[in-house]
Amino acid sequence: MSTEQASSSTWKRLGWFLLLWAASVATLGVIALFLRLMLSL
Question: Which domain holds residue 40?
Answer without folding.
Answer: 1-41
